Amino acid sequence: MTHDQEESKLETIAITSFDGCTLVANQFGWADNGAIILSPGGGQTRHAWSAAASAFAREGYFVLCADLRGHGDSDRAPDRTYSYTDYARDALVLSDWVEGRIGVKPHFIGASLGGVAALVAAGKIRQEAFASLTLVDVAPKISEHGFGSIRNFMLESARRGFENVSEAAAFLSTHFPRPNTETRSPSGSGGLQKNLRQGEDGRWRWHWDPAFVETLYLEPEEFERELTEAATNLIIPVHFMRGGESELVTQEAARHFCNIAPHIHYTEIKGARHMVTGDQNDIFLEAALDYLTRPNLDRARAEK
């Protein structure tokens, strides 16, 4: 059996995190060229990365995609309280698991909350946590309006729920008119069902724990303070990608990030909003692979 044939047979695994929380993940490919962890944003599942994971695996990488705690098939937090530090510690557990399994330190690619987790991990807990860090539309300074809009969108749908999957698809298309890789399917709304759960009241709600929004998305000022501190401590190679039309990470926010962490490599993905991989997945993949294959990237370190 060839590597390509083996890569197509993904394996679902469970990894126990620092507090006993089980993180469910898919693993792809072989580590001919290294390893990559793909971490989704808040409100997404590991399936949001499926197309990218297969593409990276074809390029010779071992790839791990895990549901965040409180999302998808992963456990909810034991006390239903969520913090950026807990997500960061989960990221470190995944990195240690990959290194133990494959024998190499993984590159980490995180979108939105997945990127926040890795930024806090590498900036505040363990500076050489990953071989490199790619942040997809996440920065220390974010739009307060965008922050609030996302929180309100998530809470509204979490509390109210939907009568059926078609209603959920219509609600999503109203807020995010450009479909992303997680929700696109030949039958329209059919691809959404794996991301919804039907409650005892018969209504359908998203796969994630509403408590993660209620306890995590509270204070933009605290978010900026914590992530700015983390960014100033980064020593590993960092690739910062921003959606050119992002409603959350503005051009001002990009300049701020580049100023406090001048060694980072910055890429703007034109035509993409916050859901970069959904809007411009091919361009994202090209830019990500170009960065990962740069000579001596694994030995590069920022000058403090």
TrEMBL record:
Pfam families: Abhydrolase_1. Keywords: Hydrolase. Residues 176-198 are annotated as: Disordered. One of its GO terms (molecular function) is hydrolase activity. Residues 35-276 form the AB hydrolase-1 domain. This is Alpha/beta hydrolase.
